[in-house]
Specification:
The protein has about 300 residues and is an alpha/beta fold. It has helices at about 1-15, 30-40, 75-90, 115-125, 145-150, 165-175, 195-200, 220-225, 260-285, and strands spanning about 20-25, 45-55, 60-70, 95-100, 105-110, 130-140, 155, 180-185, 205-210, 230-240, 250-255, 290, 295-300.
Length: about 300
């Protein structure tokens, strides 16, 4: 399976070697789109896709996502990035060039429940999640055979609140060795410390088994059942120091009623969790997410 995916990855890199995305956030003012479009044209680029959003035309923030193709991009990239600094300074931009052929090196964290992990692996295998899965890390050994059947390195690192510091030191060492750029918490049931999170700001995506901000923390299905809710959901968000309160990327819900017990609600919830996490990861990989404060702008 790994060899097949390596072949697919190389084909994707080759096909997209001249394609990049430009993400911009800046104060709204006239002339931004014209300046950026003109710059790309002057540098021989053809805009493939463009999305923009004005938070408030009078003094708010302005957001752009442009995807473009430029022959010989890898040879031109340094010149393009340096030259763009003039426009960036003029409009007070925070901007990033993202190169489509540079697949994000990803690690997946998981505990006992594997439904989200399996969804990610199949989406990756089918070419629907374009990333390099470098490793899977778990505080249980249960999913080793599954992960290794995909040819992906698996690391079992026991973790709980009593040994959290030592566990995270081991995890960080592995992540650095693999050059990880994105961490996906696929139902990893451990709280990450601020020290760990600080190593990967805006690079850790979690799935919470609740429609946040309802039922933050542990045992949300039990609490939802006790409250008699009629809708249950799941939320994928970026991890920050505040538990389950990071910028939200995607959410989903399903209807339940008085006949659904906790076990049935969990079964319904697992289906929601799989799809919500997969969509959130896909949007992150496609550079469709711009974080602004504790919110996100998602370009479809």
């Amino acid at each position: 399976m790994l060899n097949d995916h390596l072949t697919f990855s190389e084909e994707f890199r080759t096909e997209n070697k001249d394609r990049a995305r430009l993400l911009i956030q800046c104060p709204d003012q006239p002339g931004i789109v014209a300046a950026v479009s003109g710059f790309l044209q002057e540098n021989g680029a053809n805009i493939i896709d463009s999305n923009q959003y004005s938070q408030n035309p009078e003094g708010g923030q302005f957001f752009i996502r442009m995807e473009f193709e430029c022959p010989g991009l890898m040879e031109k990239r340094e010149k393009i990035e340096t030259s763009f600094s003039e426009i960036s300074t003029k409009f007070h931009m925070h901007h990033e060039f993202r190169y489509v052929s540079s697949l994000k090196k990803t690690a997946i964290f998981v505990s006992k429940e594997t439904h989200c992990l399996m969804e990610l692996l199949w989406e990756w295998k089918n070419g629907d999640l374009i990333m390099d899965i470098e490793c899977v890390i778990s505080n249980y050994d249960d999913s080793r055979d599954l992960v290794e059947s995909f040819g992906i390195p698996f690391y079992h690192i026991p973790a709980n609140k009593d040994i959290r510091k030592d566990a995270e030191e081991q995890q960080l060492k592995i992540l650095k060795q693999h050059g990880i750029e994105l961490i996906i918490l696929a139902r990893y049931m451990q709280i990450l410390t601020p020290d760990f999170v600080s190593n990967y700001p805006e690079q850790i995506i979690n799935i919470h088994h609740s429609f946040l901000p309802a039922f933050i923390g542990a045992r949300p299905y039990e609490r939802a059942y006790a409250r008699g809710v009629k809708l249950i959901g799941a939320t994928s968000h970026y991890v920050t120091d505040d538990l389950d309160e990071g910028p939200i990327i995607e959410q989903g819900v399903e209807r339940v009623d008085h006949r659904d017990n906790v076990a049935e609600m969990k079964k319904i919830g697992r289906k929601i969790e799989r799809s919500v996490l997969s969509r959130a990861v896909k949007w992150h990989l496609q550079d469709r997410v711009i974080i602004t404060g504790n919110k996100t702008v998602i370009f479809s």
